[in-house]
């Protein structure tokens, strides 16, 4: 059928018939167009191209799994104990031990204060008698030698205790670092910042409380008084050596 088209041809035109050897439609040629002009029918655009781009979504953090929750709790507890270990080591060896030594020296000074203030008023005879008695009871050379040895042993022993305390802290810190490495290697989400900030705040508050407690309670505590020491010494001499058993009026 030979028809002249006044419009571009379309595949829907009923008079188009494929030949037996054709398997698909070739580009249609219109008689109205020049022989060099060919009209192609383009397929429609896919729906995905016509659609507008999706709106950007705000990422929502995924809740922690039970394993991550327990791991964060263990890490938080470990960090807390580690910071407490650091705090106790510094606080004891730089404040508590110094306070105890100072308190003991103050008590001894109070005990001998009466003798030190009255010895200048002794007569020469009294001084000779008291010196002879003390020379029999006290060997100054031995006392000085034993004092130096005891001081050296005490300092060495306390230094070893301080090193041991720092080793505790180093062990705890190493354990925390190893646990953190294992957790990161296992792709567990660990709230490092929250754990560190919370525990630093807790230890800081604890330090402020300890300082306040020492300033208001410990330093104001009354140690045993010299009269009580006198009573204790006299009682021991009476019970053990049967001395000072006479009654003074």
From TrEMBL:
Keywords: Membrane, Transmembrane, Transmembrane helix. The chain crosses the membrane at residues 77-96, 166-188, 200-221. This is Uncharacterized protein. It comes from viral metagenome.
């Amino acid at each position: 059928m030979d028809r002249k088209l006044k419009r571009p041809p379309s595949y829907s035109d009923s008079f188009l018939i494929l030949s037996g050897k054709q398997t698909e439609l070739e580009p249609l040629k219109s008689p109205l167009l020049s022989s060099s002009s060919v009209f192609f029918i383009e397929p429609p655009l896919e729906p995905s191209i016509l659609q507008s781009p999706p709106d950007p979504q705000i990422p929502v953090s995924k809740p922690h799994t039970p394993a991550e929750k327990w791991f964060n709790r263990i890490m938080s507890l470990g960090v807390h104990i580690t910071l407490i270990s650091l705090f106790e080591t510094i606080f004891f060896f730089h404040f508590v031990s110094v306070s105890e030594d100072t308190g003991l020296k103050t008590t001894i000074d109070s005990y001998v204060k009466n003798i030190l203030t009255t010895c200048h008023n002794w007569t020469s005879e009294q001084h000779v008698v008291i010196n002879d008695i003390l020379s029999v009871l006290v060997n100054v050379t031995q006392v000085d030698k034993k004092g130096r040895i005891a001081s050296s042993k005490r300092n060495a022993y306390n230094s070893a205790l301080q090193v041991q305390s720092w080793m505790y802290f180093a062990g705890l810190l190493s354990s925390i670092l190893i646990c953190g490495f294992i957790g990161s290697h296992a792709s567990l989400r660990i709230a490092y910042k929250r754990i560190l900030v919370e525990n630093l705040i807790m230890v800081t508050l604890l330090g402020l409380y300890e300082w306040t407690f020492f300033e208001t309670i410990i330093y104001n505590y009354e140690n045993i008084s010299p009269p009580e020491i006198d009573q204790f010494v006299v009682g021991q001499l009476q019970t053990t050596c049967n001395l000072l058993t006479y009654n003074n009026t």
